[in-house]
Amino acid sequence: MSDSGIIHDGPQDYRGPEEFCRFHDSLRAQFSNFKITPIISLAEGDLACVHWSCSMIHTAAQKPLQLTGTSVVRIENGRFAEAWQNWDAAHLHAQLA
Fold it and tell me: 56-59 contacts: CB < 8 A, separation 24 or more?
């Protein structure tokens, strides 16, 4: 990720590598055993898009979870410059209820 890179994750934005690392560390603290599977991927010019599924374990509850999402990334000089991702948060929350 570039120093000026930004990830738009639903309503939340993460700017630069430091904020991304905090986002990543937060996910790893809550979930484990990630298995991310690409469903379909497309790329054109400086953009790449992947629709994916993910299985993981909620660490505190030791509960297996599944979700899907889509990520679009713009690459500049070989690094992530901007990314947009949406994932099925409602389904994730329903599985935890």
Answer: 56/31, 56/32, 57/31, 57/32, 57/33, 58/30, 58/31, 58/96, 59/29, 59/30, 59/31, 59/32
Distance, CA of 16 to CA of 80 (rounded, Å): 10
User: CB-based contacts of 21: which residues, under 8 Å, 6+ apart?
Assistant: none
Every domain of the chain and the residues it spans: 6-96
- Report which DSSP code applies to 10: T
Span between the terminal Cα atoms of the chain, in Å: 34
d(CA 97, CA 92): 9
| Segment 25-53, tens digit of pLDDT | 999 999 999 999 999 999 999 999 999 99
Residue 10: pLDDT over 90: no
Q: Answer yes or no: are the C-beta atoms of 69 and 83 closer than 8 Å.
A: no
What's the CATH code, domain 6-96? 3.10.450.50
